[in-house]
């Protein structure tokens, strides 16, 4: 009978986000250029086209099967990188009366996490304000980054066995590099979700009299869920960081004693326990939204927390066993064994009620999620029990004593703060500031010369030409 591998397989209870879709809109029908030089017409048209590109990419991604064809590429990210600066520019232009709205724009978006997705064939919600579209595209951006991480991590898992059998060419990313990319995507996604909770949603509320009270918003657009999504992305990143750390021990048989190259079991335990804490906190935030999030999502978060806690307890047992603390090792491993068995039973029972789409997105398979950890635990438990019975002769510690020895978790990754891009045009843009500086310089030089002199007239003419150049320069943006 072969020993279980030292490296857990991927994905680990991963949730693949269903990318949202949106309806069409024309900013030209809603916006009026109020600038003296009428420089924003082309920018308004470009913003409409850019948003249409985002809409098309989202639609194609949905048809293509999410991460497998659409979400697995960065077309959406590129499209959003083009649209977000234009959208922020429109928001700034309206706020500074450079552009006027003939009527409040209303954007149609399909929710991703709400329970009504399970019963309504074409659920859409109408969201008023440019700020609403900004929140929506940020959500799409973060979902896309998370799905890109899922694709990269899955690719790393499938190629790791090939990499061990044959060396890879210089043009092919190694499993380690793919996992690094996945961790980076998730850290960025966490930063975007955090920005939605901390900045985008409050800005939207501040732009409306009475805030967001009275709007029928999906749970995706609540601070609690945005904060939960930020924690989930960061916990996913830490999960992959653990997997990446264990790649160096991929060829280890999986039992005791651990080789010198193996990561410290105490470190692995703390990393897993931190993941369990983050997933648990995210589940608590999601549960606070009156049950409007898909039950499969809430259940998935509970399973993720439980799986990482099982691994954490196992590595605490291994750490004790490697240090010769036989009674503590057997105690922790026995505790982990019981948790793994309970998890396998609960997972098999609960997942039977999930839809086929949810099972696919959650990565549910016939193999129970506690089964893999259970095999490792059985191996270590047998070895350390034998060592304790023949060498250490220590009493097995009880649950109360063990709980007092469970350490706090340890963070291995950090969210990458999302910095909104500079507006593509209008107030806050580079060209707008240059034009403003040019106008100020012209007024200053004109005020210092005699307006009736010949030389003064020549300076005014030159100054007028300079202002015209700045206006033209701003128009291309």
UniProtKB/TrEMBL annotation:
Pfam families registered for this protein in UniProt: BRO1
Disordered: annotated span: 437-466
UniProt-listed Gene3D superfamilies: alix/aip1 like domains
Any one annotated GO CC term: plasma membrane
InterPro entries: BRO1_dom, BRO1_sf, pH-resp_palC
GO biological process terms held by the UniProt record: cellular response to pH
BRO1 domain ranges (all copies): 11-477
Signal sequence, renumbered to the chain: none
Sequence ranges of Gly residues compositional bias: 445-461
Superkingdom of source: Eukaryota
Alphabetized SMART domains for the sequence: BRO1 (SM01041)
Similarity annotation: Belongs to the palC family.
Protein name: pH-response regulator protein palC
Organism: Cylindrobasidium torrendii FP15055 ss-10
């Amino acid at each position: 009978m072969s020993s279980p591998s030292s490296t857990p397989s991927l994905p680990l209870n991963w949730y693949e986000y269903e990318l949202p879709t949106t309806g069409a809109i024309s900013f030209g029908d809603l916006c009026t250029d109020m600038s003296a030089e009428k420089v924003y017409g082309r920018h308004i048209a470009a913003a409409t086209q850019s948003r249409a590109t985002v809409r098309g990419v989202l639609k194609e991604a949905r048809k293509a099967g999410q991460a497998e064809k659409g979400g697995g590429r960065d077309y959406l990210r590129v499209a959003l990188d083009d649209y977000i600066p234009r959208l922020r520019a429109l928001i700034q232009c309206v706020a500074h009366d450079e552009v006027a709205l003939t009527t409040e724009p209303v954007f149609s978006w399909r929710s991703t996490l709400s329970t009504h997705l399970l019963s309504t064939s074409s659920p859409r919600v109408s969201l008023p304000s440019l700020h609403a579209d900004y929140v929506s595209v940020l959500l799409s951006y973060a979902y896309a980054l998370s799905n890109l991480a899922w694709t990269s991590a899955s690719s790393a898992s499938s190629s790791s066995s090939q990499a061990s059998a044959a060396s890879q060419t210089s043009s092919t990313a190694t499993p380690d590099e793919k996992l690094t990319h996945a961790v980076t995507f998730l850290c960025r996604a966490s930063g975007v979700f955090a920005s939605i909770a901390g900045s985008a949603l409050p800005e939207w509320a501040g732009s409306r009299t009475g805030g967001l009270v009275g709007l029928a918003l999906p749970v995706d657009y609540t601070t609690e869920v945005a904060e939960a999504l930020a924690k989930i992305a960061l916990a996913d990143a830490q999960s992959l960081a653990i997997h990446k750390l264990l790649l160096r021990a991929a060829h280890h048989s999986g039992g005791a004693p651990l080789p010198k190259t193996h990561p410290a079991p105490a470190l692995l335990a703390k990393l897993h326990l931190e993941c369990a804490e983050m997933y648990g906190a995210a589940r608590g935030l999601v549960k606070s939204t009156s049950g409007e999030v898909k039950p499969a999502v809430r259940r998935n978060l509970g399973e993720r927390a439980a799986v990482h806690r099982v691994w954490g307890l196992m590595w605490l047992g291994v750490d004790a066993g490697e240090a010769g603390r036989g009674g503590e090792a057997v105690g922790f491993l026995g505790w982990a064994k019981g948790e793994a068995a309970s998890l396998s039973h609960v997972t098999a029972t609960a997942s039977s009620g999930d839809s086929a789409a949810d099972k696919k997105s959650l990565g549910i398979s016939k193999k129970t999620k506690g089964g893999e950890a259970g095999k490792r635990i059985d191996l270590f438990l047998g070895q350390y029990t034998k060592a304790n019975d023949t060498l250490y002769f220590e009493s097995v510690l009880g649950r109360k004593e063990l709980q007092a020895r469970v350490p706090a978790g340890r963070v291995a990754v950090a969210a990458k703060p999302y910095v909104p891009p500079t507006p593509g045009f209008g107030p806050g843009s580079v060209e707008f500031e240059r034009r403003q500086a040019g106008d100020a310089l012209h007024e200053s030089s004109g005020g210092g010369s005699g307006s009736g002199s010949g030389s003064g007239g020549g300076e005014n003419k030159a100054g007028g030409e300079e202002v015209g150049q700045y206006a033209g320069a701003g128009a291309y943006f």
